[in-house]
Write a structure and sequence with these properties.
Elements (H helix, E strand, L loop, with lengths): L8 H10 L10 H8 L1 H29 L2 H4 L3 H27 L12 H31 L4 H4 L2 H19 L1 H5 E4 L3 E4 L4 H43 L6 H6 L1 H22 L20 H21 L5 H8 L1 H10 L9 H10 L1 E2 L2 E2 L2 E2 L4 E2 L9
Antiparallel strand pairs: 1-2, 3-6, 4-5
Helix pairs in contact: 2-3, 3-5, 3-13, 3-14, 3-15, 5-6, 5-8, 6-8, 6-10, 6-12, 10-12, 12-13, 12-14, 14-15
């Protein structure tokens, strides 16, 4: 489908008049929505740029901080966070290219040489992000609920191996997009006609597994982690010990990221799954009457809700930087150091104690584990 913004509404009407059977044959989706449901185009044009600005600034900063040698050398969770920031940056760039075409009518990927490749590149990061969230959520479960095996499983080396395997799996699944998409000289970039049934089954399978099962699994794991933290706190209080705030605080960032991922992705998955049950109107009707047709009106109402939900979901790829900064003392300090905003401290001893207060090193049989956790409790030095 050739999406261009050079056709005026009057020309669109004449286009529809010359082809009453199906206006999609001579008009792009953008052009049709500008007449029938302009609010959908406005949603994309107004909200998406906000997420682009936040994400394309915040994600690279997050990657620099989390993947710095002194952090990711001993912190397996930082490896996941840094990888997540890189993948989300790539996705936002690809989403911007897609929005140029669908929201602004500028032809970008809808060409013979880029149709299949772009759809592969666009879907692969969407597969990888949920896997990464599941990875560090599972790691946090092991660290909190099974601390005796933490030293074995929560290592930087193991985290890197898991991320490489997840990346390979995402690419393998995404490669099927090259098979199901094809270029049509009359319509544009569309699903192959001979793969329609396969594509329906495959889409449902991947949607339910990656965008349904994984978020639900993360939710269950998070609930188990919170229950264990409460149990440990109650146990410490019963023995007259101080609360285990350190353990709970070190989990705050990971829980916030995981929960935000769940509550933004699941609604988008549900709305997307509903599309097959929402009927479209008769395309042979004059296009200027579609908004008055009950069937088309219902479909456009669904589409408006879906676009709003998807914009909320898009924030999932842009706002983790805000969560890191709001919940992590160490992240805030490194951010300030990165831009020369950190106040100078008097004396080397304070600085050393401050640095150590941000880490909880687990000792086992006289050895330091390689699973260092960033502490998230405020310290006197973080002012």
């Amino acid at each position: 489908m050739n999406n261009t913004s050079s056709i005026h509404p009057e020309e669109m009407m004449s286009c529809n008049s010359s082809n009453m059977t199906n206006p999609f044959m001579c008009m792009s989706t953008t052009q049709i929505l500008q007449i029938t449901a302009p609010q959908i185009i406005l949603i994309d044009r107004i909200i998406s740029p906000i997420w682009y600005i936040i994400g394309l600034i915040g994600n690279p900063i997050s990657a620099v901080i989390w993947l710095s040698r002194k952090v990711c050398k001993t912190n397996s969770s930082a490896v996941y966070f840094g990888s997540l920031a890189i993948v989300e940056t790539i996705y936002l760039v690809l989403h911007f290219i897609k929005e140029l075409q669908f929201a602004w009518g500028v032809t970008t990927f809808s060409m013979k040489t880029t149709c299949e490749l772009f759809n592969f590149l666009h879907i692969t990061p969407q597969y990888l992000v949920p896997m990464l969230v599941l990875g560090f959520t599972t790691e946090r479960y092991i660290a909190v609920c099974h601390p005796f095996v933490k030293e074995k499983y929560c290592t930087v080396t193991r985290a890197k191996i898991v991320i490489i395997c997840m990346s390979a799996l995402s690419i393998a699944i995404g490669l099927l997009q090259i098979y199901v998409w094809a270029w049509d000289d009359e319509i544009g970039c569309v699903f192959r006609r001979d793969t329609e049934q396969f594509n329906k089954i495959w889409t449902w399978l991947t949607e339910m597994l990656i965008f349904g099962f994984i978020p639900v699994s993360c939710l269950v794991i998070n609930i188990l982690v919170i229950m264990e933290i409460r149990r440990l706190s109650a146990q410490s209080a019963a023995h007259g010990q101080g609360p285990t705030s350190g353990n709970a605080a070190s989990t705050t960032t990971l829980l916030c990221v995981s929960f935000y991922f769940i509550f933004t992705l699941l609604p988008a998955t549900i709305v997307y799954a509903m599309q097959s049950s929402i009927p479209q109107g008769e395309p042979s009707l004059p296009i200027n009457t579609w908004s008055d047709d009950p069937v088309w009106s219902g479909y456009f109402s669904y589409l408006t809700i879906r676009y709003i939900v998807e914009e909320i979901c898009l924030s999932n790829y842009a706002t983790y930087f805000i969560i890191y900064y709001a919940t992590g003392v160490y992240f805030r300090r490194e951010f300030r150091n990165l831009f020369g905003l950190q106040k100078k401290r008097k004396g080397k001893g304070v600085s050393s104690r401050s640095m150590m207060s941000d880490y909880s090193i687990v000792h086992s049989n006289g050895r330091n584990t390689s699973c260092t956790e960033t502490m998230l409790v405020d310290s006197p030095s973080d002012t």
